[in-house]
Design goal:
The complex is a heterodimer of chains A (176) and B (83). Chain A is built from four helices and seven strands. By secondary structure, chain A is of the alpha+beta class. Chain A has a domain of 121 residues. In chain A, strands 1, 2, 3, 4, 5, 6 and 7 form a seven-stranded mixed β-sheet that branches. The relative contact order of chain A is 0.26. Chain B contains three helices and five strands; from the N terminus they run E-H-E-E-E-E-H-H. Chain B has one domain: Double Stranded RNA Binding Domain (2-Layer Sandwich). Classes of the chains: A alpha+beta (176), B alpha+beta (83). At the A-B interface, strand 3, strand 4 and helix 1 of A face strand 4 and helix 2 of B.
């Protein structure tokens, strides 16, 4: 048994701040990860995006930590970006970097599930089952662009739009 | 001294210096990004703020070495990865 195939959706808002400009970007899509249990921990290995992983003591904690990591990676990418187009390109490259080896394991695990060779363990039964063939994708859109106006010690406009960070959403599905 | 199921970050960096010669590591606000031969691992933890040599969960290191395709060398260097 090589793990359990997971599909996850995401809907993030990232604010790209460069110089006097701030760009509010929505990042939506669907990705894949493989859930494994090793050394007593649950670990979620990214398939697409393939260059990330995270885990926890329980399935719920592993999914939560993976979601946080996904968002934090986008935040780090924002920090490395020179401008908004550069951020878009880097974020898309991160997401579209598929781990082919992990993808093969993901597909094998789904086949085994469908053939009844393995069953979904109890601790994954909290997830909704997804039986459709769904392609992974990312959609990065510019929602708004601001000129940043600074007061003597506060960045007024970014302080206002930072409230939208709380809109971060995601859902995990057990592929079946 | 590392905690169970963890590897100190400095040991991971030493392993990378040996097994992924010429790699690049970039420090973001949250994570180290490791790049080697166009393969990238995006979230090697930096540990708590101010931690100089935090313990990194082995799951991260296993994914990292698969991603960078340096498994054989890494397992020789850090035998704990073979468990």
């Amino acid at each position: 048994m090589n793990g359990y195939p997971i599909i996850f959706t995401f809907n993030e808002i990232i604010i790209v701040k460069k110089g006097f400009k701030a760009y509010v970007s929505t990042i939506k899509g669907r990705g894949q990860a493989l859930l494994v249990k090793e050394n007593g921990k649950y670990w979620l290995n990214g398939v697409q995006p393939g260059g990330m992983s995270d885990g926890g003591d329980t399935v719920k904690e592993a999914l939560h930590n993976f979601r946080i990591a996904f968002r934090n990676i986008l935040s780090d990418i924002e920090g490395f970006s020179r401008n908004y187009p550069d951020f878009r390109n880097r974020a898309a490259s991160f997401f579209n970097d598929i781990d082919e080896k992990e993808l093969r394991l993901w597909e094998e695990a789904r086949k085994e599930l469908r053939a009844g060779k393995i069953s979904t363990p109890e601790d994954i039964s909290i997830l909704k089952k997804e039986t459709n063939e769904l392609n992974s994708y990312i959609n990065i859109a510019l929602l708004a662009e601001f000129i940043r106006i600074k007061s003597y010690n506060n960045d007024i406009i970014t302080a206002e739009i930072n409230k939208e960070n709380s809109n971060s959403q995601s859902e995990f599905l057990a592929a079946a | 001294m590392s905690s169970k199921g963890c590897i100190p970050l400095n040991d991971i960096f030493k392993m990378l210096d040996e097994c992924a010669q010429g790699h690049t590591r970039k420090s973001g606000d949250h994570y180290w990004i490791i790049i080697f031969h166009e393969k990238i691992y995006y979230n090697l933890p930096k540990g708590e703020h101010g931690a100089k040599n935090p313990d990194i969960q082995i799951g991260h290191v296993k994914k990292l070495i698969r991603r960078l395709q340096i498994e054989d060398c890494a397992k020789r260097y850090l035998p704990i990865l073979s468990n």
